[in-house]
Design goal:
Elements lengths: L4 E3 L15 E6 L4 E5 L7 E12 L2 E13 L11 E7 L3 H16 L1 H23 L4 H31 L5 E9 L2 E9 L5 E7 L2
Parallel strand pairs: 1-4
Antiparallel strand pairs: 2-3, 2-9, 3-4, 4-5, 5-6, 6-7, 7-8, 8-9
Helix pairs in contact: 1-3, 2-3
């Protein structure tokens, strides 16, 4: 079984006498770019840490540490086929506490209370509709349709608020699944600032 090789990954330049470290630059369709320097050791399985920076234009948006894992041959991705690489941002305890506080605030603030009240009102209308039309299926369907649509819209709003509160990152995405081949990068980003997934493109000097 292949051993797991742990490589030191940093966002700083290596010593002048050392070989140049691979330079990764990947971008989202939002215009945000993640830049990091990765030091790979030889081996079929590679893993380690890196420091990376999200930016947009010339503005730095967020800095943090990343777990980086990849699979392939010694130079996989440069000439011998695609190399799958996973980048996952490391969440510090302080960041986790901040997100917990933000989620708690989102679930107890005035917007949430207003949403709960709207849902209660819609649920009451749905109950009345069912009670008044239990012997008339046609009228029951006509009565329920707009109320159910209102409840569905409220649920979507609730899900969006929770997703936004939980999404966490100040910029970009926290999980990138990438394929690297001939210096080209493509893949997808998840756990992003808007709670959605985004396509990723870029370059990687292996």
């Amino acid at each position: 079984m292949l051993a797991l090789i742990v490589a030191a990954l940093t966002a700083q330049t290596v010593d002048a006498g050392s070989p140049p470290s691979p330079h990764w630059v990947v971008s989202l369709d939002t215009g945000e770019t993640l830049t990091l320097i990765v030091e790979w050791q030889k081996g079929a399985v590679r893993a380690g840490r890196a420091r990376g920076t999200w930016s947009k234009g010339k503005k730095s948006l967020d800095k943090g540490e990343w777990l980086v894992t990849g699979s392939g041959g010694e130079r996989a991705g440069s000439s011998g086929g695609a190399n799958h690489v996973t980048l996952e941002r490391i969440i510090t305890e302080a960041e986790e506490n901040e997100r917990t506080d933000r989620l708690r605030a989102a679930m107890s603030g005035p917007q949430q209370q207003a949403l709960v009240q709207k849902r209660a009102q819609a649920t009451a209308k749905l109950s009345a509709c069912m009670a008044q039309n239990q012997n008339n299926s046609k009228h029951l369907s006509q009565c329920m349709a707009p109320v159910q649509a209102e409840l569905n819209a409220l649920q979507v709003e609730q899900d969006q608020r929770i997703r936004k509160a939980r999404s966490g990152p100040k910029a970009g995405c926290e999980l990138l699944e990438l394929e690297v081949e001939n210096g080209k990068v493509k893949g997808s980003g998840d756990r992003c600032t808007d709670g959605a997934s985004h396509p990723v493109t870029g370059t990687a000097s292996l």
